Amino acid sequence: METTITVYGPLRSATGAKTVTLEWAGGTVADAIAALVDAYPRAEQYLYDGDQLRPSVRVSLDGERIDLVTRVPEGASLTVVPAVQGGARE
């Protein structure tokens, strides 16, 4: 299955581009994120704490925010926004 994934923030350095095309077996949003990390291993540090997706990671499917158990249809577009690291307040 082919899915277009748009990434933001530090994920761009992990994928080398703002938008990538992912070939994967298909399944849920969680499966798509796992396939993204398989294809771009440097993305893992921005998305996961251990084996759990960080709660602050935001994913949308064709522009609609969704949860990780949503099935991704053929030809869909995902957007992934990783956790944002907070800075020190002065």
TrEMBL record:
> Which CDD domains is this protein grouped with?
Ubl_MoaD_like
Source species, domain of life: Archaea
PANTHER family, per the entry: SULFUR CARRIER PROTEIN CYSO, SULFUR CARRIER PROTEIN SLR0821-RELATED
Q: What is this protein called?
A: Sulfur carrier protein ThiS
Instruction: State the species of origin.
Output: Natrinema limicola JCM 13563
The lineage is: Archaea, Methanobacteriati, Methanobacteriota, Stenosarchaea group, Halobacteria
